[in-house]
Amino acid sequence: MLTELQWLALEVKYLDRTQAFYEAFLDLDVRSESAHETALAAGETDLILREPSSVPRGGLHTHYAFSIPADEYDRWYTRLDERFDLVEHTFGDSRSLYFYDPETNCVELGQSAVDGPGIDGIFEVVLEVEDLDRAQQFYEQLGFDLTDTGDQRNRVRMTTGSFDIELWEPQLGLADARGGVHVDIGVQAETPAETAKAVESLALRVETPNAETRRIRDPDGHYVTLVPR
Question: How many CB atoms lie within 10 A of CB 22?
Fold first, then answer.
């Protein structure tokens, strides 16, 4: 069983500039730093900014969504609209705003049932895939549940119950967002070793960084690291 998103890593060309962007405009605090990466606190989830230096790399042009308390939405919109060309969409009773970071990642802030204050988690990550059926099969066997197939059948939405992924064949989405390539995420799992074994035949590679953790490279080159709850 999969549960929480532990981290999302983004590849950045200029670490200092991108870190300053997230600190200044989205009020994210530094959780840890090393020579080539910085982990920022997005609630309990880490947003990792990583210079090209190792494998797995961070994701490029990744669309992802931060959770914000519903009653903070107007404040965030007013604040960010002063600096960015915002795009807004409504999903049922919830609103989301979209804009771009310095590395062309499409950042979404969406009204969510979170406590806050401010950004309190990541509820969606979009992955670009070559073969949608193959990718869907992989993530279903990994433990994600299908929730939406999309109107054009060139994307699907899947969930652990705690956060969602969307699998997109190459395309432009809302706000001209794209699915990320070679995205690196960490996900909590009840039994990482058993969960990894379920997709071993479909994965490009399964690694064992330590006794409790499994790092999987999916058929499209994305990394999913399973960590114990």
Answer: 22
| Distance between CA atoms of residues 148 and 17, nearest Å | 36
Residue 122, both tokens:
């990541």
6-10, 101-105, 141-145, 149-153: least confidently modelled range: 149-153
How far is Cα of residue 226 from the mean position of the Cα atoms in its chain?
A: 15
Rounded CA-CA distance 173/176 in Å is: 5
Q: Quote the pTM value.
A: 0.96
Q: Which residues pair with 2 in a beta bridge?
A: 189
Distance CA 49, CA 56 (A): 12
Could you tell me if 101 and 107 are in contact, meaning their C-beta atoms sit under 8 angstroms apart?
yes
pLDDT tens-digit series, residues 22-51: 999 999 999 999 999 999 999 999 999 999
State the average pLDDT over residues 136-154.
Answer: 90
* 52 in Cβ contact with 3 (< 8 Å): no
Query: What DSSP character marks residue 174?
Result: G
**Beta strands, E only, 113-179:** 122-128, 145-148, 155-159, 164-168
Residue 108, classed as helix, strand or coil, is strand
Give the domains, in start order, of the chain with CATH numbers: 2-228 (3.10.180.10)
